[in-house]
Write a structure and sequence with these properties.
The protein has helices spanning 3-11, 17-34, 121-141, and strands at residues 41-46, 50-54, 57-64, 70-73, 77-78, 84-89, 95-100, 106-111. The chain is α+β, with helices and mostly antiparallel strands. The relative contact order is 0.15.
Length: 145
Amino acid sequence: MDGYRLFSLFDESNFEIRPKQQYPPVLEAGLAQHGLALDDVLAVSQDFGLWAICKQGIFHARLKGVFNKRAEVDRFIPYSEIVEARVESSGPRTGKIVLYDVDDKKIAEIDFSAGGPEKTLEGEQAQCRRVLEIIDGAWRAVGNS
């Protein structure tokens, strides 16, 4: 896998330096499980694990187990299942992107609550806007409007 391309995905994300060392293998595991290539990934974001925003949909993966060594990958959510993406409040000044299906049922949520020593409220708000724009652009590119 192209190491430069892989790590460049994390440069604009809300991952800190230490998770960069742990999460590339989680991303690789998710790509392998869903039959995707690195070129399919448009962005990554952090919310109790890794969200991969891809050309055809999104998925969440995280480290699990006693020593956080096992990658656990959730199902792939194709854009064809998503009818709407809304930014909703997750705290007094923080937001989350919530994805809804045709029945107005929540199918995924990416939370951007600021926390930890390196995160800032402004940075998390900017990351929320950035990820929403990428999801919206990819959603429209596959024929939704």
